[in-house]
Amino acid sequence: MTVAVRGLDVALGGRPVLKGVSLEVPAGSWTAVIGPNGAGKSTLLRAVLGLLPCAGEIAVAGADLSALKPRQRARLVAYAPQSPNLPVGMTVFDYTLLGRSPYIPHLGRESARDRTIAGEVLDRLDLTGLADRPLDHLSGGERQRVVLARALAQQTSVLLLDEPTTALDIGHQQQVMELIDQLRLSDGLTVVTTIHDLTLAGQYADDLVLLSGGRVAAAGAPGEVLTRAAIQEHFDARVHVLPGPDGRPLLSLERP
Ligand SMILES: Nc1ncnc2c1ncn2[C@@H]1O[C@H](COP(=O)(O)OP(=O)(O)OP(=O)(O)O)[C@@H](O)[C@H]1O
């Protein structure tokens, strides 16, 4: 397993947020963590990264990330947070190049290869035309793709993405999800993403983990997890669930 979590407990501000969470993500697969607001999805990603005090076992690419220096960690796993602090005035290209930092020697400069990799990632995300633009002159969706670009420039084997598509139009949602899937297939990338769009989650992920109240309420193939009853119970929403052309579930809201 590339990401293995067993019996994870996390408390924030003295309150339990994750309770006995277990998760196994095989190498080269894609797991989407779904669940209602406040269920603990972002907390789970941050705990997997080793950024939070916790009890239980976590191994990423065979390592306990909390024991590693940030630079070592950044060579194993890339993380695209939901709302990162973006340095004001920095250009899109320079921000993407930050993804290469773990490979640049201390007091050294980036190599031509680092710049090529940053340029290629921007190209794949349709951002080349914005390369010289300061980050604070971008739209919300453009910013979200730049954060993903920085993570992809790290060229790690594990990718943790917190809500990578929330600010994107439907075309860019498809572009980003297809790109991640392509990388998964071509480079064997292991992907864990939180995501609110349940149909999108079901279309791309191999497995879904439904978190509710800090616990795993269901886990398995999209068709097993995305049931009308589970959505009603954990999201308090009424939906129709129909099998799509490829058999994966498609959800639509049911008007009262
Ligand atoms: N630093 C903190 N101190 C105390 N409580 C926190 C802290 N950070 C998050 N929480 C709480 O932990 C719970 C889980 O938060 P988390 O951000 O992981 O949820 P989420 O499932 O990602 O939610 P959303 O879908 O709204 O993004 C929430 O109830 C939140 O209020």
TrEMBL record:
Gene3D superfamilies: P-loop containing nucleotide triphosphate hydrolases. This is ABC transporter ATP-binding protein. Transmembrane segments: none annotated. SMART domains: AAA. It comes from Actinomadura montaniterrae. Residues 3-238 form the ABC transporter domain. Pfam families: ABC_tran (PF00005). InterPro entries: AAA+_ATPase, ABC_transporter-like_ATP-bd, ABC_transporter-like_CS, P-loop_NTPase. Keywords: ATP-binding, Nucleotide-binding, Translocase, Transport. GO terms for molecular function: ATP binding; ATP hydrolysis activity. It comes from the Bacteria.
